[in-house]
């Protein structure tokens, strides 16, 4: 299964002034591309992965591999977690942003209110998860195994998929995601992210997860 770097679904400068063009080039063309290169190198050591007839216990795609990391061959396990997770997280992240004005669906908005109290309470919980993630990682809104919304953060490139949870919104809080424009002020980057969230995509993922 060769993984391919997906194109951005918009121009590199489309998210200005919230996310700057230089960051988008570095982040997509360099950082994301490196995860793609490295996960392909890891998977190349086990060409049986993805050929279901030989190893039905091993997932056929990255999502299913990362859903059961213990089934990944030990010699490439951490490389797949880091770089396969890096690829999946970033591929999702690009789709979760848009220059268009979008809003949560009525169903999602009602669930957010019921779960967190209000949309502002959800924003505060998400921002807190993003702000307090020490070092590198991601903040997430997920649908958990019980079908409930949950805000959490993960370290490094770990995906909520490995915890049996379906990510429907995610924010990259690695310094490479914001340092060019926001320097060390992660909270300003988190605030800006809320201006470019593609709620149409979040709504779609929410509906599919429920
Ligand atoms: Fe990133």
UniProtKB/TrEMBL annotation:
Residue ranges of the TM segments: none
Enzyme class: oxidoreductase
InterPro entries cross-referenced by the UniProt entry: Mn/Fe_SOD, Mn/Fe_SOD_BS, Mn/Fe_SOD_C, Mn/Fe_SOD_N, Mn/Fe_SOD_N_sf, SOD_C_sf
Organism (species): Streptococcus massiliensis
Catalytic activity, as annotated: 2 superoxide + 2 H(+) = H2O2 + O2
Protein name: Superoxide dismutase
Cofactor(s) required for function per UniProt: Mn(2+)
Phylogenetic placement of the source organism: Bacteria, Bacillati, Bacillota, Bacilli, Lactobacillales
Function as written in the Swiss-Prot or TrEMBL entry: Destroys radicals which are normally produced within the cells and which are toxic to biological systems.
Residue ranges of every copy of the Manganese/iron superoxide dismutase N-terminal domain listed in the record: 5-97
Residue stretches making up the Manganese/iron superoxide dismutase C-terminal domain: 104-204
Keywords attached to this entry: Metal-binding, Oxidoreductase
Gene Ontology cellular-component annotations: cytoplasm
Record-level Gene Ontology MF annotations: metal ion binding; superoxide dismutase activity
Similarity section: Belongs to the iron/manganese superoxide dismutase family.
EC number(s) on file: 1.15.1.1
Keyword Oxidoreductase: yes
Ligand binding (Mn(2+)): 27, 90, 172, 176
Keyword rRNA-binding: no
């Amino acid at each position: 299964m060769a993984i391919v770097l997906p194109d951005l679904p918009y121009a590199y400068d489309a998210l200005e002034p919230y996310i700057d063009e230089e960051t988008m080039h570095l982040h997509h063309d360099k950082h994301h591309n490196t995860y793609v290169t490295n996960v392909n190198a890891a998977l190349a050591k086990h060409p049986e992965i993805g050929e279901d007839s030989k190893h039905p216990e091993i997932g056929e795609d990255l999502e299913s591999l990362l859903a059961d990391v213990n089934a990944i061959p030990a010699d490439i396990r951490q490389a797949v977690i880091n770089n396969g997770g890096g690829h999946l997280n970033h591929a999702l992240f690009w789709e979760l942003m848009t220059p268009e004005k979008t809003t949560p669906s009525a169903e999602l908005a009602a669930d957010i209110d019921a779960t967190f109290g209000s949309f502002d309470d959800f924003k505060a919980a998400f921002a807190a998860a993003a702000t307090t993630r020490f070092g590198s990682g991601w903040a997430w809104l997920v649908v958990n195994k019980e079908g409930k919304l949950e805000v959490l953060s993960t370290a490094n490139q770990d995906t909520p998929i490995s915890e049996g949870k379906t990510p429907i919104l995610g924010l990259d809080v690695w310094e490479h995601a914001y340092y060019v424009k926001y320097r060390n002020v992660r909270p300003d980057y988190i605030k800006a992210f809320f201006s470019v969230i593609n709620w149409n995509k979040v709504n779609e993922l929410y509906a599919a997860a429920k």
